[in-house]
Amino acid sequence: MTETHVSDVMTTPMLTLAAETPIDEAAQAMGEADVKSVVIVADGCRPEGIFTSTDALSALADAVAAGETTVGAYMTTPVETVSPTTPLTDAAALMGDYSHLPVTDSDGDAIGILTKTDLAAAVADADTELVDTTTA
Q1: What mean pLDDT, rounded, does the chain reach?
Q2: CBS domain spans which residues (predicted)?
């Protein structure tokens, strides 16, 4: 068996929006897609931030007008990303600080997202080999 990489368990496609998107539109899109995050992109598909359900709650707590406030005002920046070839164990180490990691190709464009839910599913899958045991 070989080591599992991010590309083996990441979610594709992911939801992307522009920073200028109003929070209410982002929340509606997240609800329709049944996801808890959206990657905020610029210049093609380069991640510039991430907007999560937690960010939406912060906006609600601030009593902002969701139709007049953009995701750019509440998104997390800078956004941490991983490569599809990153070993899953390395990505899991980053997940202590993040719940969602956009996956980017060699050009820096977003091609998927890795979530804590993806990691949990990989751990629960008895066929997933998290580390390379052939060299031990």
Answers
A1: 88
A2: 10-66, 75-129
